[in-house]
């Protein structure tokens, strides 16, 4: 049964990533109203006619989200039964279901009643937490082999500060990025790093939103680099932290590069989806660091 649980956890994590990317695809292609104000049906039908591109994208996202719901439920139940003795399992199982339902309800409410840009921007962030809980549950499943004993790690006060601070701040950055998309501010500033050739600072609301996100993203880039330097200096003997922060820095570099390329390529869809993918993976890595910190029994340097 453990083998089944491992396979199920990996599949569920991948599907949850598709849910995240699907939501980003819906937003970036303007397909949110692809099924009109109808939910869970589409234009009041199971399979509407005609099938426009926007309708297909919205329907596909709903199908993937529904599949994710079934998988998360199955993963939560099976994890509870087989590895419920691990202290984080039951909490993560409950949270994964809670946030998956919450993101579905917010998405449904946006379709049926409409929502402000500020509320819609929360949808991606909640989806991100939902993915992170499933991802952590998957890692717990693979810890059953005991090839890596996370309880032996010694994570110091400085690294704890960086980890907690970065993951909280990264959520703020994610929100500002989602707000950029939902307010249609992605191309408000066509140049990088400044707004335009002859304009360094924003002069209207959309430019302010765009430049605010860039500033927030720049800070997290620098902060993760600082954490990486600390990990290289003090955690060479703890490979999960040492290589984990290297991976985190690579992901934030890819995130920054894809963000700039999105602007330069006039919102290339593939690059925009990669931008969403990199932040999702980064948030997953940071979430695992937080899980490791929660297991620490005493403070070290």
Considering DSSP H and I runs of 4 or more, what fraction of the residues is helical?
over 70%
- The span between the termini is 40 Å
Order of helices and strands: HHHHHHHH
| Total domain modules | 2
Shape annotation: flat
Q: What is the number of helices?
A: 8
Q: Could you give a short account of the major beta sheet?
A: none
Computed CA radius of gyration, to the nearest angstrom:
20 Å
Structure description:
The model has no long low-confidence stretch (mean pLDDT 87). The chain folds into two domains: 1-147, no CATH class; 150-301. The chain contains eight helices and no strands. The chain has 301 residues and is mainly alpha-helical. Helices cover 72% and strands 0% of the residues. Helix 2 packs antiparallel against helix 3, helix 2 (53-83) runs parallel beside helix 4 and helix 6 runs antiparallel to helix 7. The chain has helices at residues 2-28, 53-83, 89-112, 117-142, 157-182, 205-234, 239-264, 269-294.
Topology:
Elements: H1 2-28, H2 53-83, H3 89-112, H4 117-142, H5 157-182, H6 205-234, H7 239-264, H8 269-294
Helix pairs in contact: 1-2, 1-4, 1-8, 2-3, 2-4, 3-4, 4-5, 4-8, 5-6, 5-8, 6-7, 7-8
């Amino acid at each position: 049964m453990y083998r089944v649980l491992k396979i199920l956890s990996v599949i569920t994590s991948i599907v949850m990533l598709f849910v995240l990317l699907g939501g980003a695809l819906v937003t970036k292609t303007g397909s949110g109203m692809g099924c009109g104000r109808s939910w869970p049906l589409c234009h009041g039908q199971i399979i509407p006619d005609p099938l426009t591109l926007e309708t297909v994208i919205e329907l596909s996202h709903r199908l993937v989200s529904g599949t994710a719901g079934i998988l998360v439920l199955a993963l939560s139940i099976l994890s509870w039964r087989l590895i419920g003795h691990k202290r984080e399992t039951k909490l993560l199982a409950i949270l994964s279901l809670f946030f998956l339902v919450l993101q579905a309800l917010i998405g449904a409410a946006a379709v049926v009643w409409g929502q402000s840009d500020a509320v819609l921007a929360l949808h991606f962030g909640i989806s991100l937490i939902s993915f992170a809980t499933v991802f952590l549950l998957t890692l717990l499943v693979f810890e059953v082999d005991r090839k890596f004993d996370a309880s032996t790690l010694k994570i110091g006060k400085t690294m704890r500060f960086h980890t907690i601070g970065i993951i909280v701040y990264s959520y703020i950055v994610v929100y500002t990025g989602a707000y950029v998309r939902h307010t249609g501010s992605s191309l408000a500033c066509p140049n990088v790093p400044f707004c335009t050739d002859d304009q360094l600072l924003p002069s209207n609301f959309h430019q302010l939103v765009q430049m605010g996100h860039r500033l927030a993203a720049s800070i997290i880039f620098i902060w993760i680099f600082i954490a990486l330097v600390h990990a290289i200096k003090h955690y060479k003997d703890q490979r999960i932290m040492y290589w984990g922060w290297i991976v985190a820095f690579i992901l934030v570099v890819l995130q920054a590069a894809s963000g700039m390329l999105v602007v330069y390529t006039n919102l290339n869809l593939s690059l925009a989806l990669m931008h969403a993918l990199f932040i999702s993976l980064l948030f997953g890595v940071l979430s695992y660091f937080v899980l490791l910190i929660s297991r620490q029994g005493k403070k070290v340097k």
